[in-house]
Amino acid sequence: MLQQLLTVTELGGSRREIGLAHGRTHARLIQRSLEVYDRLFHDFVGIRWVRARVEAARFGRMIERGFPEILEEMDAIAEGAGVEPLDILTLNCRSEISLTRASGGCSAFALQRAGTQWLAQNWDWRTDQLHNVVVLKIRGETSAPLVSVGEAGMVAKIGLNAHGIGVCLNAIRSQTCGEGLPIHVALRKILESPDLESALAVASRDRVCSPAHFLVASAKGEAVGLEVHPGEPGRLPAEGGVVTHTNHLYAPDATAQVEDFPRADSRPRLARLDALLRREPAPSAPMDERALFEILADHDGEPLSICRHFNPAQPPEERMETLFGVVMNLTERRLAVRHGKPCESEETLVVTL
User: How far apart are the first and last CA of the chain?
Assistant: First the structure.
């Protein structure tokens, strides 16, 4: 498939101004995302877009309680893209609708080395969404500038802000869904947080209505894995400056409350991340962006590898591939992303705050 180069979409102003610009700039990609998720919802949970909109409507009330101002931005995205507000709400609740039967294959890690705090991950999903990936640089009126790499029409996914707060995401397959913020709305609230305490409070105070793993870190050298769900999140503290995660729950506080159904590749990828990151060099040795992209490009144990390629042996709805790799230097407020598989190109888009 012909690869398109990513560019940065700069958005600013009020919630409405940010949303309108997002919708107008990426109207074609948003329309394509709606078509993609119509197919994905059918493949994953046997429903079409019309039924998915009904499912999504109830999450609007949860957002109204926990992050009401983001609804204005979502409505403006819809206006700018020429779709209905409920379409954008449904898109932003796609995890809650689709991840009861299928999960992505993302591999994420935090690494603190020689005074620099890193966050990195591959985002693995269906190839249908490869060309609907966008990089948003947002300068809002009420929060610090932020950068988010995600899907057109969605308010956030993976990124960092000018305070040095960053977040990665791992999908968790589970039939649990309760009260709280939808995953991608919670990610945006984390990216608007001024400090680590506020970011962690999104999971512990606001709560997240369906299970996922948020890997949150700060430029001060702090990192924690949050296995979020409607109850108190499971916490995974850094050990030797390292936190690793794939697509299964393993914090005791989370596994005691939530049942998950991971894919067979999740544990092998986690073991490989640990083998690569918990070996020498020592925590005092420096690390660089290129070396971290090499980890994201690792094929050990393929097809159950960190860098994921098309695998015809899997059922069609489970054929996940790496759609982008991202490396964030929180200390320098620098985000680097490679669109597609990080093993196939060194073309890197860099955004700094």
Answer: 32
Number of helical (H) and strand (E) elements in the chain, helices listed first: 11, 14
- What is d(CA 219, CA 117) in angstroms, rounded to the nearest whole number? 6
Residue type at 349 in one-letter notation = L
CA 154 vs CA 165, 185, 323: distances in Å = 20, 9, 16
28 and 82 fall within a common domain: yes
SS3 of 330, please?
coil
How many separate domains does the chain show? 2
> pTM of this prediction?
0.96
Range of the domain at 57: 14-98
What is the CB neighbour count within 10 angstroms for residue 130?
Answer: 18
Tens of pLDDT, residue by residue over 144-179, are 999 999 999 999 999 999 999 999 999 999 989 899
- Answer yes or no: do 243 and 306 share one domain: yes
CA dihedral 305, 306, 307, 309 (to 10 degrees): 40
The pair of three-digit structure tokens given for residue 351, joined into one six-digit string: 């955004």
- Count of other CB atoms within 10 angstroms of residue 347: 12
Q: For helices 289-296 and 266-277, give the axis angle rounded to 10 degrees.
A: 150
